[in-house]
Amino acid sequence: MSAQPDxxxxxxxxxxxxxxxxxPGAAAELLGRLRADRRAEQWVPAFERxxxxxxxxxRHAFSLTPLHxxxxxxxxxxxxxxxxxxxxxxxxxxxxxxxxxxxLGGRR
Length: 108
Description:
mainly alpha; 4 helices
């Protein structure tokens, strides 16, 4: 007789992006990181525009999901920035690129 179960438990499902919940201060921390970045001139106004749109959407939908999506998208952009910089500095051919908005989801 074996003490092992006769079946394999199902793996836990992946957390869908729609259920991502950032920490309470994540947006403020992210904005601080954006302001400190060399791309601040472009990124801060873009983040603020995305945040304002998400805030309006959240008010109409009575849901924080649009705000969470903005934080998640911008966190991914900031995390990907060093890799993008390294690629651009490498001088490799980028003619067959994929738009980052296609990967992360476009701004609405």
